[in-house]
Amino acid sequence: MPAKPRWHADLDKIRAAAEALKAPFLDRPAIERLFGVKARQANKLMRRLGGYRLGNADLVGREDLLARLDGLAGPDGYQGQVTRRARVLEALDEVRGQARPRRVSAPPPRRQDAALPEGARLTGPGELTISFTSAEDLLGRVMGLAQAASENFAAFEAGLLPFPAPDSPDPDSVPGDLR
């Protein structure tokens, strides 16, 4: 978005000065004084503000000028942009004030011969215990567990089998000798 002209910040003052004028039309020198611009900028402004040519003079109707200034100051104009900018700055300050997420440390190195990573052990059928010292350590160990499963699923699955599966009966507990 292009930069706004200097006079945008003084829209309220410009509007008050234009309301105080008694003349129904404003010429280029009046626009120069009102907006604090030079002749070339005043001519461009007059075209943008709905001015027209009368003989050798360019004119802008005072009421047209006031209506255009109201449009610039409205919710879609300069004041709306000032309000939006203030809201964006407040939101950025709020985000800056929030705590940043902590980095999760990498999982501890594992022994190559182990199916489960360090700190994880089976405590019973269908039960896994993970030892940790901090939240970051816990997340690192869970990530290590997931990596162990994805790298070599067969070894990971075999590491879970020291206990019989809960749904398979123990061969010693089957009544009668079926062998």
Characterise the protein shown here.
- By secondary structure, this protein is mainly α.
- It folds into two domains: 6-97, Arc Repressor Mutant, subunit A; 102-165, no CATH class.
- Helices cover 47% and strands 11% of the residues.
- It contains seven helices and five strands; from the N terminus they run H-E-H-H-E-E-H-H-E-E-H-H.
- The protein has helices at residues 11-20, 28-35, 39-48, 62-73, 78-97, 135-151, 153-159, and strands spanning 25-27, 52-54, 57-61, 120-124, 127-130.
- The strands form two sheets. The chain has a three-stranded antiparallel β-sheet with strand order 1-3-2. Strands 4-5 form a two-stranded antiparallel sheet.
- The longest helix has 20 residues, at 78-97.
- The model is unreliable at 173-179 (pLDDT under 50).
Helix/strand class: mainly alpha
- What's the main sheet like? 3 strands, antiparallel
Silhouette: rod-shaped
Radius of gyration, rounded? 39 Å
